[in-house]
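Researcher: Go.
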Amino acid sequence: MIATFFVGGTSSTYQPPALERADYIGEWAGDGVRLELGEQGSVMARKLPVHDGFDVVDRCSGHGTWEPEQADYGLRAGVALTIPDCKGAQLRWEVAGTDERPELFVLMGDPDAGNVAVLRKRAG
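Model: Structure:
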């Protein structure tokens, strides 16, 4: 015999904020990283993490372009960066936080280690 149990109550599942293109524009900073996302799709990046699969082994800075990316199987919505001088750097940042305080984050290295870089948008 199979028993089924139901625990009453309300529980909400976390949903990251749904950002429009205009919401990404501006300066994002944290964990030593800084991104300036411009209105025309330009990006200036400072100290992007470069990792060898498990550890951050370098940091990279440069100029390039950005574009928003929709959520895809296994990935949240976020921004994709194209920075020619930063091959090997983390170039896709996913959305987290709340509607009031959106964040961009990237998981670095071993998923079990929990190494996460988090950027918050600066007021401007």
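Model: DSSP finds one helix and eight strands in the chain.
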